[in-house]
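Hi, here's the filled form for the chain we discussed.

Project: internal
Contact: R.S.
Residues: 145
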Amino acid sequence: HKAITHFQEEKMIGEELGARTTLVRALLAEHKVEDAQREINTAQPITEKDLRRDSLLDFAIVAARVQAALGENDKAKNGLQSALTQATQMGFLEYQFEARLALGELEMNSVQPAPGRAHLAALETDATAAGFQLVARKAHQAAAY
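And the returned structure, exactly as it came back:
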C-alpha cells in the first residue's frame, strides 16, 4: 500500500500498476476475492494509459484469475486466451506460460478436468524445457488435483 501511494504521488503509473498487480496476487492468495476485485476495478483506468506491454499482460492475467475466483469462468477464459495470444505474438514466454497455467487451472475446476490435466502436463514439459521450473512445478501440482 505504501508503494502504491508513493507511485501515485510521483505519477509513476507503470510502477503503480505493477504494485497493484502484486497486491491483487497477495489478496487472491489470502482468498480475499472481493478485495482483489475492488483493486482490479481501481487499477483498470491505469491500463488505458500508455504502458509497457508486459505490465499490461501481467495485469490481464491476474484480472482473469480474479474473474475465475468469482466464478466468471467464461470471462476469465476469454481474458486468458487474449493474453496468451498477445504474449505469443510479442514473444513473451513468461506470460505465455502464466496464461497457460491459469487456463489449465481454470479447466481443472470445470466439470470435465481431463483437458485441463492434458494442458497442464504439456505446460509442465514446455516450461521445464525452457528453464521455467517454478511454472513447471505449479503445473504439475495443479494437474495432480
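Let me know if anything looks off before we file it.
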